[in-house]
Amino acid sequence: MFSRILTSRGNLLFVPLLVALLAALFLCVPQPLRAEEPYVILADEYPPWYHWHEGQISGPYADAVRATFARMGIPIHIKHSTWKRALFELERGGTVGMFAGIWTRRRAEFTMYTTVPLGEEEKWVVTLKDYPTEFKTLGDLRGHTVGVVQAYSYGADFDSMEGVKRCRFITEDLLIKKFLSGREKIILISREVLENHVAQSGGLERIKFHFMIQQLPHYMMFSRKHPNASNLARDFSQALRELRMEGLIK
Q1: Domains of the chain
Q2: Phi/psi at 188 (nearest 5 deg)?
Q3: Which helix (H) or strand (E) holds 230?
Q4: What residues does 218 pair with on adjacent strands?
Q5: Least enclosed by CB within 10 Å: which of 15, 196, 217, 226?
């Protein structure tokens, strides 16, 4: 039939109409049946949970994110970014999502958080073992100088506490280096981050963890500017929960 239409001079005027009809039919194909562009997911570096090497990201969170999106049937491309830039892109809708972050009231204004965390970290009061004072409560820190990371919150109780001098550092790496050199006596730090750092250089036996002040879940974060943000957060949470129950990820 089509050959007769195309070879008949009287019907040549219908060729553009036929092309338009075929194009319309293609556009009507359901989205899952068409090739999809991978979602761009931004990530900085936060060992031991995830780190970059020669342009490739690895670690338990990176594995969990890949496996979860695969379970959802969504292709992704994880792209390296600074933390500050990733948050900026998330807020303006320049990326579908990023990992991994803690919940804050400010971020919740532009972030759709998952309900199932990728993992969690513990913040501890830490000294070297030869430090003469024992700390059991936040109140014991009064009268002391404590090393912290400038941009971090350590919970309302510590953040609002008076009688403690805070020595602020720009990054955790700088805080750890100052601590291990003996120039910073007391610090508040992620136990997992410190243990990972010291494991590479040795000396874990020199460190004393006094008590935990905070336990923080880490979440996958989706931009509220994305039209499917709510569904993505819901489906990601469900898929992540299923993978854990099946023992495929931790």
Answers
A1: 35-119+217-245 (3.40.190.10), 121-215 (3.40.190.10)
A2: -110, 125
A3: helix 229-245
A4: 119
A5: 15
Cβ-contact 72, 248 below 8 angstroms: no
Nearest to 236 by CA among 112, 135, 120: 112
Q: Are strands 111-113 and 207-223 parallel, antiparallel or unpaired?
A: antiparallel
For position 4, what pLDDT does the model report?
39
Placement of tokens 């002391």 in the chain: 144
CA-closest candidate to residue 166, choices 190, 182, 193, 187? 187
From the first residue on, what is the mean pLDDT of each consecutive set of 10 residues in the chain (250 residues)? 41 47 47 65 96 95 98 97 96 96 93 97 96 95 96 90 96 93 95 91 88 96 96 98 94
End-to-end Cα, the chain, rounded Å: 59
Q: How far out from the chain centre does Cα 226 lie? A: 17
Helices (H) and strands (E) in the chain, counts: 9, 11
User: Whole-model pTM?
Assistant: 0.77
**Closest to 101 in 3D by CA, of 65, 57, 141, 52:** 65
Tokens (6 digits) for 112: 């759709």
Q: What pLDDT does 212 receive?
A: 97
* Selection from 193, 213, 49 nearest residue 117 by Cα: 49
Element (H, E) at 218: strand 207-223
Scan for tokens 């899952």, then name that residue.
32
- Take residue 165 and report the two structure tokens written for it: 């001098």
For residue 215, how many other CB atoms are within 10 A of its CB?
10
Q: Is 186 helix (H, G, I), strand (E, B) or coil?
A: strand
The dihedrals phi and psi of 93, each to the nearest 5 degrees, come to 85, 20
